[in-house]
């Protein structure tokens, strides 16, 4: 094959992908709407595509790039003298490292204590923290949120704190509903109990400061007493290519808790500040270039454009039948729940048919038995601004269509067959059989996903998780 044929084949593979630009994909991607940003990022990434960030002594430019990115973030997010940070591959790795460092600190403070340290986690905190608990052997203590505001309550955190608490997490904002947790109040409660507090600002950290307080949100960054670490992604509202994130802390000792160093083998001494050894420098270089070019004023313009689009969207939703906004959107994330008999799972399918990707989120039962409703997640970016009128028109049309449909019902036979199954004991073949029974036999996913999402909500959580892993297992098998 010629290089041109290879690239043509590669381009053809993306035919069925959702668009990464244009503002219609309202999850997963962050589009500035500026062609200059894309071109600059691509050129910077290409310039560093062969550089290995594993060893900054061999590639000192990487150390400069990382230092500049961390310094800019600390200046933006309340980092005082002595504050440090680490560039990671994404928000999940930043959250993983924060939990790892907290576990290291807890173990050092409790020598000989064989108990599992605990992670106090609002149910709305990102799933990355549950992954961290799984990987690093912490016990998750679920903290319910107010069912109306979807914000965690400081008193609930206070009641669950103990000597086993290694870390308390709050969100700025939360991914499911886009609301800002009471960071200062929770951090104060945690500090009084001697527990560190991490702020997950992966989405809002590069956006809120550039709005200059226009949203009326309370302080949330490292300047808040009791906040010990903070994560912020540059591949979200920093508009850099994936994946670049930062983990910041005001305490250099905290950072050492997630570093790994060994001279215990015959090869070169290995020192890694992140989970990976070899790290691609291309995304870092792209983030650096985009930051240098946009500057404070460029980011302010993009932040205001995205926020104004969000405000217009929320105002216009009052004219869409059968939907309501959940909570008080603090930034550019909006969650929609159904009213008057509208099922948002149907609404998601109707919007997909109209060329939009809105992300379904199933209902969730909290520890106290209250239920957070099924919602649709919308991420608004600067590229969405010009499309808000079209989005509202399509939402209204899709809502009227969804209101005519009966509620999605999972296959009762599968729900009945699932009762009593032990998810941990299911083999790959048994999971394949259950998925085939549900109509997910390895072929294309159904055009209408509402019944599938309804099935996930109807099954016991552990079994649903096992089947979802089975779906992705099938997707990732070689063709």
Automatic annotation (TrEMBL):
Gene3D superfamilies reported in the protein's UniProt record: Aspartate Aminotransferase, domain 1, Type I PLP-dependent aspartate aminotransferase-like (Major domain)
Alphabetical list of SUPFAM superfamilies matching this protein: PLP-dependent transferases
Modified residue annotations for N6-(pyridoxal phosphate)lysine: 236
PANTHER family: PTHR42735, SPHINGOSINE-1-PHOSPHATE LYASE 1
GO biological process: carboxylic acid metabolic process
Molecular function terms from GO: aromatic-L-amino-acid decarboxylase activity; pyridoxal phosphate binding
Family (UniProt): Belongs to the group II decarboxylase family. Sphingosine-1-phosphate lyase subfamily.
UniProt cofactor(s): pyridoxal 5'-phosphate
Provenance organism: Klenkia soli
Alphabetically ordered keywords of this record: Lyase, Pyridoxal phosphate
Protein name as catalogued: Glutamate or tyrosine decarboxylase
InterPro entries given in the database record: GrpII_AminoAcid_Decarb, PyrdxlP-dep_de-COase, PyrdxlP-dep_Trfase, PyrdxlP-dep_Trfase_major, PyrdxlP-dep_Trfase_small
């Amino acid at each position: 094959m010629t290089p041109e044929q290879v690239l043509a084949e590669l381009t053809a593979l993306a035919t069925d992908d959702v668009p990464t630009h244009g503002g219609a994909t309202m999850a997963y991607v962050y589009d500035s709407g500026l062609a200059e940003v894309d071109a600059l990022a691509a050129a910077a990434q290409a310039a560093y595509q062969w550089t290995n960030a594993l060893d900054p002594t061999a590639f000192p430019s990487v150390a400069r790039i990382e230092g500049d990115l961390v310094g800019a973030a600390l200046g933006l997010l309340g980092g005082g003298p002595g504050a440090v940070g680490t560039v990671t591959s994404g928000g999940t790795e930043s959250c993983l490292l924060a939990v790892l460092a907290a576990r290291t600190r807890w173990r050092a403070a409790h020598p000989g204590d064989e108990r599992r340290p605990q992670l106090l986690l609002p149910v709305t905190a990102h799933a990355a923290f549950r992954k961290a608990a799984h990987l690093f052997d912490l016990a998750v203590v679920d903290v319910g949120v107010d069912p109306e505001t979807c914000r965690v309550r400081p008193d609930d955190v206070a009641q669950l704190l103990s000597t086993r608490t290694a870390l308390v997490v709050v969100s700025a904002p939360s991914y499911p509903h886009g609301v800002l947790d009471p960071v200062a109040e929770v951090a104060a409660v945690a500090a009084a109990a001697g527990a560190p507090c991490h702020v997950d600002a992966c989405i809002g950290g590069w956006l809120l400061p550039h709005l200059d307080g226009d949203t009326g949100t309370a302080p949330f960054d490292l300047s808040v007493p009791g906040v010990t670490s903070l994560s912020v992604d540059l591949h979200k509202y920093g508009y850099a290519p994936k994946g670049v994130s930062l983990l910041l802390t005001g305490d250099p000792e905290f950072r050492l808790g997630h570093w790994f160093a060994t001279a215990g083998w015959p090869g070169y001494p290995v020192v890694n500040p992140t989970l990976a050894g070899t790290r691609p420098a291309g995304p870092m270089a792209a983030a650096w270039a985009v930051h240098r070019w946009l500057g404070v004023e460029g980011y302010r313009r993009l932040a205001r454009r995205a926020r104004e689009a969000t405000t217009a969207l929320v105002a216009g939703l009052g004219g869409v039948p059968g939907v309501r906004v959940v909570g008080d959107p603090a930034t550019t994330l909006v969650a929609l729940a159904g009213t008057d008999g509208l099922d948002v799972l149907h609404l998601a399918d109707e919007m997909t048919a109209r060329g939009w990707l809105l992300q379904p989120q199933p209902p969730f039962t909290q520890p106290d038995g209250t239920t957070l409703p099924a919602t649709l997640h919308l991420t608004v970016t600067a590229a969405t601004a010009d499309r808000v009128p079209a989005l509202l028109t399509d939402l209204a049309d899709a809502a009227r269509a969804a209101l005519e449909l009966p509620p999605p019902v999972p296959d009762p036979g599968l729900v009945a067959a699932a009762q009593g199954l032990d998810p941990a004991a299911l083999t790959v073949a048994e999971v394949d059989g259950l998925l085939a029974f549900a109509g997910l036999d390895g072929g294309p996913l159904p055009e209408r996903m509402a019944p599938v999402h309804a099935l996930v909500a109807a099954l016991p959580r552990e079994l649903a998780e096992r089947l979802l892993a089975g779906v992705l297992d099938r997707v990732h098998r070689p063709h």
